[in-house]
Amino acid sequence: MPHLFASLAKLPDFPFESEGFVFLYRACSLRDAHLSAIRVQKQGLYGLYDFCILQIKQKGGDLFKAQKSTRPLPVGVLQKALQILARFCKVSYSNLGTPSPYFESPFLIHWDRFAFPQSYHLEIGFGSGRHLLNKAQKNPQETYIGVEIHTPSLEQVLRQIELLGLKNLYLAQADARALLEILPSGCLGLDVHFPVPWSKSPNRRVMNPQTLEHMRAILCKNAWLWLRSDDKPYFQQSLQLVLSLPCCDLQVCKNIDQDMVLSKYEARWRRQQKDIWDLKLRVLNPINRSYLPFSLDAPLHFKAPTKQEPLHLWQQKAWIQENCFLNIQDVLEYENLWLLVLSLGDLLTPLNKMVVVDRKKGTIEYIGGLPLNTKAHRQAHQHLLEILQEENCG
């Protein structure tokens, strides 16, 4: 990721603006005196970029890098912001390279304004995107949505969408295990090809009882869930999961050529003569799902505290329930603002976010956008409101 190390840093007074980037303020950590966060915003072609750059005092100078949970996509936005900061620094080393224009795409999904189609095809973990791109090319009248967590894969496929002139393929950066909970019904087909098997951490697998239920909830009647894997234990666990359903219509294949373009992973496995398993599950009885907003649907205000004790926020123990949790890892302070570094949501799909609390106005703002509107996120957010209100009662 882009970063720089400066032996001397003399930044202008905040806020300041350069080339459309607004450097709003610098908040200082109450937990680590060497750490601060610079909040940056820039209006892009398709939305607002809102992120933080960490400034970490180290021996011999300051390190500037992205706060990971707010890192923008494309990464070139972050690179440009760091290049602007570098003008006010004596840079010892960096990996910023030569300034270059970054690519913004209308096909990157922003959940707060994405108009979801009535019917769509979904692929989870598309990697290089060969299979997904090929299907979108062959079926221009159909809408395709790809979900991926890996930033380089997203940027690569977004460029391919532009180069191929596709108008029917959209990509989302998200943890599919959480996203599946809020997607609408109308899915005509769901592909999960060569997911990470997570042999040492099976709880991180995309195939589990909860996600299978969500997959069945979004798939139309007679639509297919198609799992491909080169990992036998993963495949066997997924097969047993499907067979545990009250009734199912499925196909199981081993080393059978499929009518599809090969992904780079499958091409590699074939060269290595590895076994490849296919599981196709046809949905017989769809589960009716009511529509939910994509982004967190919850109050973003509280009664403004009269007694400020920010240290109490991160010194308290993590709040852990059966299906959700909230942990305040740090508090950074700037004038009337607290920047809370949070981990929250489902214990199996934890989400890291930064939240701005305006203790005078009594408002909450999630840097980089609201969390997905899952039950665990709503519960964790509600508990955060209760904690802030407790500060008021102090």
TrEMBL record:
EC number: 2.1.1.33
Listed pathway(s): tRNA modification; N(7)-methylguanine-tRNA biosynthesis
Single GO MF annotation: tRNA (guanine(46)-N7)-methyltransferase activity
Record field: catalytic activity: guanosine(46) in tRNA + S-adenosyl-L-methionine = N(7)-methylguanosine(46) in tRNA + S-adenosyl-L-homocysteine
Entry binding sites for S-adenosyl-L-methionine: 123, 148, 175
Cellular component annotations (GO), alphabetically ordered: tRNA methyltransferase complex
Entry keyword annotation includes Nucleotide-binding: no
Keywords: Methyltransferase, S-adenosyl-L-methionine, Transferase, tRNA processing
PROSITE patterns xref list: SAM_MT_TRMB (PS51625)
Function: Catalyzes the formation of N(7)-methylguanine at position 46 (m7G46) in tRNA.
Protein name per its UniProtKB record: tRNA (guanine-N(7)-)-methyltransferase
Biological classification of the source: Bacteria, Pseudomonadati, Campylobacterota, Epsilonproteobacteria, Campylobacterales
